[in-house]
Amino acid sequence: MRELRTLYWKGGSLYLLDQRLLPHRERYVRCRGYRDVARAIREMIVRGAPAIGVAAAYGIVLACKTAGGKKAMLEARIMEAAEAIKSTRPTAVNLFWAVDRMVRLAKEAIESGLDVYETLLQEANRMAEADIEANRRIGEYGKGLIPDGATVMTYCNAGGLATVGYGTAIGVIRAAFEGGKKISVLVPETRPKLQGARLTAYELKRLGIPYKIITDNMASMLMSMGKVGCIVVGADRVLARTGHVVNKIGTLGLAISARYFGVPFYVAAPLSSFDFERKPDEVKIEERDEQEVLTIAGKSIAPRGSKAVNLAFDITPPELVSAIITEYGVYEPSGLMLLEKYARPHTG
Ligand code: MRU
Q1: Which residues contact residue 190 at a Cβ distance below 8 angstroms, ignoring those fewer than 6 apart?
Q2: Contact criterion met (CB below 8 Å) for 41 and 52
Q3: Across the strands, what pairs with 121?
Q4: Atom in ligand 1 nearest the alpha carbon of residue 159
Q5: Radius of gyration over every alpha carbon of the chain, rounded to an integer in angstroms
Q6: Which atom of ligand 1 is nearest to the CA of 167?
Q7: Which candidate, 196, 152, 198, places its Cα nearest to that of 174?
Q8: Do residues 290 and 308 touch, judged by C-beta distance below 8 A?
């Protein structure tokens, strides 16, 4: 089986697998400039916290490519691109982590007279490689938590498509499966964008891992019937100071039910998804267009003129999280600041 490629760089352009079209069509969108990347993130052509971060890094590379040689112009263009890319989606911290890292590096390269484009391109390539490597390590650390024979529930899509490759939550499931454990997966469809039914199911099918799709509102009942061995989800932002986990809307409800019915609830996330500064009330939760709730696959489902609420993420408190699986090992939510020594600073 060929590995999924969420994104790749070729001939001075970034190519993104158009996730809006999956599972029915595999088509790549070419990004020639940073505005194309910003649009792709906003419209969820690329989505999932780590994938957004790396795409954003390549966006800064593209800004630099078209900026011309003058120092001041180059720096101004990079700052403009950084602002535009950061304004696309507010919740996944990887976006800010990646952009800040690229801006810092660009300033250093300008000051020391290095080839800024080459320096940034190499860094974006490194980030892409590092993401896959981090996910593999998360898989290795996490697979021991999955009992043989278990039915594992995941949520949204925290697989290869949400990252550069391999996946975080699906990486754990995949590592357990490839290690010989007989497991099957319950996939909540994840309204309104259906990342579970469309993307997670697509990935599990390609990997040959048995799965069943459920509607989101079946999850608690299945837990009450003893049909869920454990839950593994990804994260858009892990708040290291408090242990709160920001992830796709609906994660909080799963975690509450899991605690009530005694089902272990694990979060898999790389350090690039960690926020070592903020508290829960300082995180901006994305609100998306109400049309996403009022329609399914482009078809209206509600009386004309209906209003809707469309919060894209929620925040799960640490007391509901059994453990957090990172590329540096498995941590209790109360012990996440121990990871700060591995992190580089960022804002946003
Ligand atoms: O709105 P999305 O599809 O970008 O949300 C994605 C999620 O919530 C994922 O669970 C999260 O980014 C972790 S991906 C490894």
Answers
A1: 155, 156, 157, 196, 197, 200, 216, 248, 250
A2: yes
A3: none
A4: 15
A5: 20
A6: 15
A7: 152
A8: yes
Tokens of 276: 């070592």
CATH number of the domain within which 61 lies:
1.20.120.420
Q: Which of 80, 102, 135 is the last residue of a domain?
A: 135
Q: For residue 193, report the distance from its CA to the centre of ligand 1, in Å.
A: 11
**Residue 156 Cα to ligand 1 middle (Å):** 7
Last residue of a domain, one of 135, 158, 185: 135
0.70 exceeded by pTM:
yes
pLDDT at 347: 46
pLDDT digits (tens, 9 = 90+) for 79-111: 999 999 999 999 999 999 999 999 999 999 999
Residues 149 and 42 in one domain: no
How close is the Cα of 115 to the center of ligand 1, in Å? 34
Q: What are 166-217's pLDDT values in tens digits?
A: 999 999 999 999 999 999 999 999 999 999 999 999 999 999 999 999 999 9
Q: In terms of domains, do 319 and 185 share one? A: yes
Strands 28-31 and 13-17, how do they pair?
Answer: antiparallel
**Residue 191 sits in the same domain as residue 128:** no
Residues 13 and 151 in one domain: no
- Is 1 contained in some domain? no
Please count the structural domains in the chain: 2
Residue 68 belongs to what domain range? 7-135
237 lines ligand 1 (CB under 6 A): no
Q: How far apart are CA 39 and CA 25, in angstroms?
A: 20
Q: Which residues are catalytic?
A: 236
